[in-house]
Automatic annotation (TrEMBL):
Membrane-spanning ranges: none
NCBIfam families linked: alr (TIGR00492)
Active site: K35, Y253
Catalytically driven reaction(s): L-alanine = D-alanine
Protein task: Catalyzes the interconversion of L-alanine and D-alanine. May also act on other amino acids.
Gene: alr
Residue sites binding substrate per the record: R131, M301
The protein's annotated pathway: Amino-acid biosynthesis; D-alanine biosynthesis; D-alanine from L-alanine: step 1/1
Biological process terms in GO annotation: D-alanine biosynthetic process
Start and end residues of each Alanine racemase C-terminal domain: 232-356
GO cellular-component term (any): cytosol
Protein name per its UniProtKB record: Alanine racemase
Keywords assigned: Isomerase, Pyridoxal phosphate
Taxonomic path: Bacteria, Pseudomonadati, Pseudomonadota, Betaproteobacteria, Neisseriales
Family listed: Belongs to the alanine racemase family.
Length: 360
């Protein structure tokens, strides 16, 4: 017997979500963002599921990119932060992996590269996010340096938006980025999921959707379903014990929950060590055998507790959905004061993954 907790990953939903995301654009390329192990969904499985539809993949680590190449993934791949050292620059050339160049030291590595295969380069502009990229006034100099190098082939100019998902939008960053992108004559890539769905004038040549591939909305006021998306992952675990409480009894560490009347509760084999957020309050939604209920008391390391009072047929062995199919991850993220991205990425390695592909 294994501990009854599982993460079901719906690869057909992810393929559907990729196509829905790309369909927001008028025939532009869409690089599927599969960094952070495809936001916790498994980068190899996701890349394989998208291999016949995706225009390319965007990721973070050269190790992951090489692993995908070795597994037979032939699509263009680009590293969103580029090389972290000279050795990685060499590997990018060797394996035909493109990447961002956001800083002068990365150009220095390209200058030291002795390869007859130039590295496809996405020159990154800091248009206001103030994380990675050349300032607009440094752009021409960086581009001229790269163009003079036989080891680099600059294909794309890219930037990344800070507020594409809220009412502030992208106007300021786009005004800084667009003129130099146009003047460069390079392919343009700016849009994350939020801009892919909401700011079509920024689509350029290649969009970079991440979160929407996994069925989660980038917008605080909308859930994925409203965007036509389906959940990529469902986290569930079984009830492993029940308790009956008299009015006034408390539940769990800190005794933060007091039963207002007689209650029946179920103890579920999922805790914060599995990636379920400890900070959520009592009443955070769950589904017990598909029926709506809520959490009771504090989430502990390996267990949490749910209310079974109104669910007389539920008991040991009942399946409890923590998020996913039928229970949008956005709701748990909101209860935890975070975003679906963080919950997806935080599912612990100890939770067994089950990948499904219902492609007919
Ligand atoms: C993560 C990332 C994306 C995807 O962002 P989503 O909000 O998940 O769509 C796109 N571009 C860059 C540079 C990123 O780091």
């Amino acid at each position: 017997m294994t501990r009854p907790i599982r993460l079901d990953i719906d690869l057909s939903a992810i393929r559907h979500n990729y196509l829905v995301s790309r369909a927001q654009t008028a025939g532009r390329r869409a690089y599927a963002v599969i960094k952070a192990d495809a936001y916790g969904h498994g980068s190899l499985e996701v890349a394989r599921a998208l291999a016949d539809v995706a225009d390319g993949f965007a990721l973070l680590n050269i190790e992951d990119a090489i692993r995908l190449r070795r597994a037979g993934i032939r699509q263009p791949m680009t590293l969103l932060e580029g090389a972290f050292d000279l050795e990685e620059t060499v590997l990018m050339a060797e394996h035909g992996i493109a990447g961002a160049v956001h800083s002068p030291h990365q150009i220095d590595w390209l200058a030291q590269l002795d390869s007859d295969r130039p590295v496809e380069t996405w020159l990154k502009v800091n248009s206001g996010m103030n994380r990675l990229g050349f300032q607009p006034e440094e752009f021409d100099g960086a581009l001229a340096r790269l163009k003079a190098l036989p080891s680099a082939r600059v294909s794309t100019v890219m930037t990344h938006f800070a507020t594409a998902d809220d009412e502030r939008g992208v106007a300021g960053q786009w005004a800084r980025f667009q003129p130099l992108a146009e003047r460069s004559g390079l392919a343009v890539s700016a849009a994350n999921s939020a801009a892919t769905f909401r700011h079509p004038h920024t689509h350029g040549d290649a969009v970079r959707p991440g979160i929407t591939l996994y069925g989660c909305s980038p917008f605080a006021e909308l859930e994925g379903e409203a965007l036509g998306l389906r959940p990529g992952m469902t986290l569930s675990a079984d009830v492993i014990a029940t308790q009956t409480l008299a009015a006034g009894e408390t539940v769990g560490y800190g005794a933060t929950f007091t039963a207002p009347q007689a209650m029946r509760i179920g103890v579920v084999a999922c805790g914060y060590a599995d990636g379920y957020p400890r900070v959520v309050p009592s009443g955070t939604p769950v589904l017990v055998d598909g029926q709506a209920s809520g959490t009771v008391g504090r989430v502990s390391m390996d267990m949490l507790v749910v209310d079974l009072t109104a669910l007389p047929s539920a008991g040991v062995g009942s399946r409890v959905t923590l998020w996913g199919e039928g229970l949008p991850i956005e709701r748990i993220a909101a209860a935890a004061g975070t975003i679906g991205y963080e919950l997806m990425c935080a599912v612990a390695p100890r939770v067994p993954r089950h990948h499904h592909d219902t492609r007919g």
